[in-house]
Specification:
alpha+beta; three-stranded antiparallel β-sheet
């Protein structure tokens, strides 16, 4: 039988503890990264939801005023929509137009800035909704 000295056993315990701390710290760094990505994706989803709601509100308003919009073939953007886009979306803007007066087809474009997303083109996002009224 081989005798192990006390100093060697203490050294092995210290190395085991250091390896455990290293593995734990790498896991915590991964968890922090995952949390950051989750927050970024949640904010982006919130902006898309607000843009979608605004586009449908514009379409519903136009449906309520269908005859006036189709007679003039013009769709005025209300200031409430612009102020809502500016308050709910960073750099938010609304554009809407009637693309086909005979069919009653409108196109609504909502744009906003997505500064937090690294791969966003020109740091901007756009939602385009085309529908018939």
């Amino acid at each position: 039988m081989k005798n192990i000295s006390i100093g060697t056993v203490n050294g092995l315990s210290l190395i085991e503890v250091l390896v455990a701390v290293l593995v734990l710290s790498i896991g915590l760094l991964g968890l922090a990264s995952l949390q950051g990505f989750s927050l970024q994706a949640g904010q982006s989803a919130y902006h898309r939801t607000q843009a979608t709601n605004l586009a449908y509100e514009v379409a519903d308003f136009t449906r309520l005023n269908r005859s006036a919009a189709l007679n003039t073939c013009n769709l005025p953007i209300l200031e409430q929509w612009q102020s809502f886009a500016a308050s709910q979306l960073p750099g938010g803007d609304v554009a809407a137009s009637i693309t086909n007066c005979t069919l009653g087809e409108i196109q609504i474009t909502i744009t906003w800035d997505e500064e937090r997303i690294e791969d966003a083109e020109d740091s901007g996002e756009e939602l385009v909704v085309t529908t018939r009224i």
